[in-house]
Write a structure and sequence with these properties.
With about 375 residues, the protein is of the alpha+beta class. The protein has 14 helices and 15 strands. It folds into 2 domains: about 110 residues, Uridine Diphospho-n-acetylenolpyruvylglucosamine Reductase, domain 3; about 200 residues, Vanillyl-alcohol Oxidase, Chain A, domain 3, CATH 3.40.462.20. It is globular and about 60 Å long.
C-alpha cells in the first residue's frame, strides 16, 4: 500500500486576539509555540500534557490535557478549522459554516481532510500548581488505591494523573501527577490530601508558569529519536486486580524509559453530550497507556515483548475502547469502531460525503458508508 505524507511543519503562523480571547494557528504549530504566544497575554487553551505535540493531531483526536477538567478538551475550545478535503477544496468548518464537517473533525481524527488552520477559544491562565509526588514501588499498590478514591472527589480546577515509571537512577517508582488551574492558595488546600498520603520519596508540587507544567513530562515522553511502542484503553474502574497487575508490570520494566500512566477525564471534558462532537468518550474514566520506550533499535524486540506480555494480563481489566489519539498500529478495527461509540454510523455517512474513496485512510480509519 502506497501513501503520501504532507508536511505542514513550515506552517507556523499564530495570531492572538487578546480582546476576543481567541487564537488562530496554522497546522504546523506545536503546542509549545501556541502556549508561548497565548501566555504572553495570560491566556491558554487545553493542549495535551507535553509541549512538542502538534496541535493538529491532538485536536482532531479530541485533545486531553492539563486544562481539561476546567475548560474541556481541545475540541471543546475549537471555534473553527480550515480543512482541505479529498476533492481539493478548502472549506471553513464552524458551527455556522459546514457544521457537519465541524462536528466530524472534533474527534474524528484525520479522516476528513488536512486541517491547515485552527481557531481556538482562550481562557485566562496565570500561575498554576504542578508537579509530582513520588513513592517507592512498595507503596505503589496503596498509592493507586488512594488515587482511585481521590479522582471522583477533585473539582474541575484540579487534575490528577498517576504513573508507574523509573527514577533517574533506573529504579521503578510510583507517582501522583498533580495540577491545579486556579488560585494557588486554593490549589494548595485541594491537593493537600494527595500530598500527605504515604511516605513519599519526593514532592515536587509547586507554583509554576503554565508553560513549565506543559513541559514537565517532556523528558522522556517528548524526546525525539526514541523508539516507542504502546497500547492503550479506557477504563471506568481501577479494580484491585488491575492495580496488582500494574504494579507487577512495573517491577519488570525492560527499559528505564518505559511507563504505565493513567490520565483521568472529568469535569467540563465529560459534561459535553456524547453526540455533540465526534469524540464520544464523555464519561468520567481513565485513559490508560502502557508505553514502551527505548533508545537502541537493536533492542526493539525485547521492549515490544514487554508491552505485549503485560498487555495480555492488563487488557481483561480494561474496556475495549481507546482514546483515538492513542490507537496502536496493531489495534483491531473493532476497537476503533468501539471507540467512536454511537457516533460511528454518522461518521461513516460523513466520510462517504467528504472522502468517498477513503483517501485519508492511514489513521484510526472510518470507512465510508
Amino acid at each position: 500500500m502506497t501513501a503520501a505524507v504532507i508536511d505542514l511543519s513550515a506552517m507556523k503562523a499564530i495570531t492572538v486576539e487578546p480582546a476576543r480571547r481567541t487564537a488562530r494557528a496554522e497546522g504546523g504549530v506545536l503546542w509549545r509555540d501556541l502556549d508561548a504566544a497565548t501566555q504572553a497575554h495570560g491566556l491558554a487553551t487545553t493542549g495535551g500534557t507535553v509541549s512538542n505535540t502538534g496541535i493538529g493531531g491532538l485536536t482532531l483526536g479530541g485533545g486531553l490535557g492539563w486544562l481539561g477538567g476546567k475548560h474541556g478538551l481541545s475540541i471543546d475550545n475549537l471555534l473553527s478549522a480550515e480543512v482541505v478535503t479529498a476533492d481539493g477544496q478548502l472549506r471553513r468548518a464552524s458551527a455556522e459554516e459546514n457544521p457537519d464537517l465541524f462536528w466530524a473533525v472534533r474527534g474524528g481524527g484525520g479522516n476528513f481532510g488536512v486541517v491547515t488552520a485552527f481557531e481556538y477559544q482562550l481562557h485566562p491562565v496565570g500561575e498554576v500548581l504542578g508537579g509530582m509526588v513520588i513513592y517507592p514501588l512498595d507503596q505503589a499498590a496503596a498509592m493507586l488505591r488512594f488515587y482511585r478514591d481521590l479522582c471522583p472527589t477533585i473539582p474541575d480546577e484540579a487534575e490528577a494523573y498517576a504513573a508507574l515509571l523509573t527514577s533517574p537512577e533506573g529504579v521503578p517508582v510510583a507517582a501522583l501527577l498533580l495540577g491545579y488551574n486556579g488560585p494557588v492558595e486554593q490549589g494548595e488546600k485541594v491537593l493537600a490530601a494527595a500530598r500527605r498520603f504515604g511516605t513519599p520519596l519526593a514532592d515536587t508540587v509547586a507554583p509554576m508558569a503554565y508553560g513549565a507544567r506543559q513541559s514537565m513530562l517532556d523528558v522522556p515522553f517528548a524526546e525525539h529519536g526514541l523508539h516507542r511502542y504502546w497500547r492503550s484503553a479506557f477504563t471506568e474502574h481501577l479494580s484491585d486486580a488491575l492495580i496488582d497487575e500494574l504494579v507487577a508490570a512495573a517491577a519488570t520494566f525492560s527499559s528505564p524509559l518505559s511507563s504505565l500512566i493513567l490520565f483521568y477525564l472529568h469535569g467540563a471534558a465529560v459534561r459535553v453530550p456524547a453526540a455533540k462532537t465526534a469524540f464520544s468518550a464523555r464519561r468520567a474514566q481513565w485513559d490508560f497507556d502502557a508505553i514502551g520506550q527505548w533508545s537502541e533499535g537493536a533492542q526493539s524486540a525485547t521492549h515490544i515483548a514487554w508491552v505485549r506480555d503485560g498487555w495480555k494480563r492488563l487488557e481483561p481489566h480494561l474496556k475495549g475502547s481507546v482514546y483515538i489519539n492513542h490507537v496502536a498500529t496493531d489495534d483491531l478495527p473493532e476497537k476503533v469502531r468501539a471507540s467512536f461509540g454511537d457516533n460511528y454510523q454518522r461518521l461513516r455517512q460523513l466520510k462517504a460525503r467528504f472522502d468517498p474513496a477513503n483517501l485519508f485512510r492511514m489513521n484510526a480509519n472510518i470507512p465510508p458508508a
